[in-house]
Design goal:
Structural class: alpha/beta
Bound molecules: pyridoxal-5'-phosphate
CATH class of the largest domain: Alpha Beta
Strand order of the largest sheet: 12-15-18-17-16-19-11-1-20
Number of helices: 11
Helix content: 25-40%
Radius of gyration: 24 Å
Length: about 375
């Protein structure tokens, strides 16, 4: 059978490749995590365009669900939420420059204070602008990324008690190994954090909101849940690593879809794509799809990736190009315009994020954040 029929691409679909996000699935995932960690509350992490799902759209769902907080990595992500009218409390988790502080204060974004100097700078800006700052103190208990070291945290906590224009609302740390099978280092980090928190006990002060748990710790280390948890990848329905059991019924909210744009027959012995690394072992039908590493479909998956056409898996053959990939469908049929699932799907034939991560030699987080803005997002539910 050849494929001479007309493509069936809708008029409002300028490009057949798109990501479909089911906002109801994200809402369910939020509820599943909230029930698991209660009485701790949930601060979903929306950095990197909500792990590719769409920053503003996801934040609006969380606002309706009554989430107490969301976290992002960078100031501009917080600003984008405010520009779109999202009023939820937003913690910017990453490191900051002094020159950025006024923007935080103007837009009511919560700062991570990661050293005595940064805290002082925040206090000075808040005093000068006459706008109180809200901060969460960042304690480094063993990640060595940002934050004051646990062994010198007392000075930061002391300084925070003296600030007049800064409200210390939270205190947090981040695990380096909460997604590992061996939790010894995560437990050590948690002990160090507990040691820092004794500062408040010694002074009979109530501690600010305490938080530490990323997805790995939510799944594996109940004693780390404290007052708030910070799920990223788990909220989006994937596991943080292959070592962590899938013990919560979260679901993948995102599907990456495309359509066949070309069909041909490749003769036995003929190579396909750059480098000619794949040679058709026998005559086979091959379809071409308009997606490639320029969209975030990792070139490293060449020779490993599969796609789903009509509910059945087929191999991507030859090297992945910037904008196109070729798929061998053997003696089966596919027509121009037929839908193809690159990621996600249903039932036995789904391609889970974790599987694509294994093909690409990376983690689920990088798969989701690599699907770039050239791929339009389409929303369901919400
Ligand atoms: C990214 C991040 C998280 C979420 O991590 P996941 O592994 O995706 O759950 C939590 N906290 C901080 C500080 C982060 O940077």
């Amino acid at each position: 059978m050849t494929a001479l029929n007309e493509p069936t691409i809708a008029a409002d679909e300028p490009r057949p490749t798109r990501v479909e996000v089911d906002l109801d699935v994200l809402a369910d995932n939020y509820r599943v995590i909230a029930a698991h960690v209660a009485p701790a509350r949930v601060m979903p992490i929306l950095k990197a365009n909500a792990y590719g799902h769409g920053l503003v759209e996801v934040a609006r769902v969380l606002e309706r669900l009554g989430a107490p907080y969301v976290g992002v990595a960078y100031l501009e992500e917080g600003l984008r939420l405010r520009q779109h009218g999202v009023r939820l409390p937003v913690l910017v988790l990453g490191g900051i420059l002094g020159s950025q502080i006024p923007r935080f204060l103007e837009h009511g974004l919560t700062l991570a204070a990661s050293s005595v100097d940064k805290l002082r700078a925040i206090e000075e800006h808040a005093a000068a602008l006459g706008r109180p700052a809200t901060v969460h103190l960042k304690i480094d208990t063993g990640m060595e990324r940002i934050g004051v070291h646990w062994y010198s945290a007392e000075a930061l906590l002391e300084a925070s008690l003296r600030c007049r224009h800064v409200r210390v609302e939270g205190i947090f740390t981040h695990f380096a190994n909460a997604d590992a099978p061996d939790l010894a280092h995560a437990r050590l980090q948690l002990e160090r954090f507990a040691e820092v928190l004794r500062f408040y006990e010694r002074r009979s002060l109530p501690p600010p909101l305490r938080h530490a748990a990323n997805s790995g710790a939510i799944l594996q280390l109940r004693e780390s849940h404290l007052d708030l948890v910070r799920p990223g990848i788990l909220f989006y329905g994937a596991r943080p690593s292959a070592d962590v059991p899938a013990s919560l019924p979260v679901r993948q909210a995102l599907r990456w879809l495309t359509r066949v744009v070309f069909f041909k027959v490749v003769k036995a012995g003929h190579p396909v794509s750059y480098g000619g690394e794949w040679v058709a072992p026998a005559e086979t039908r091959v379809v071409t799809l308009p997606v490639g590493y320029g969209d975030g479909y990792a070139r490293a998956m060449s020779g490993r990736a599969e796609v789903i056409v009509h509910g059945k898996r087929y191999p991507v053959v030859g090297r992945i190009c910037m904008d196109q990939i070729m798929v061998s469908i053997g003696r089966d049929s596919a027509y121009n315009g037929d839908e193809v699932v690159l990621l996600g799907g249903e039932g036995d034939t789904a391609i889970p994020i974790e599987q694509m991560a294994a093909w690409a030699g990376t983690i689920a987080h990088e798969i989701l954040t690599s699907i770039n803005t050239r791929v339009p997002r389409v929303y369901r539910g919400g």
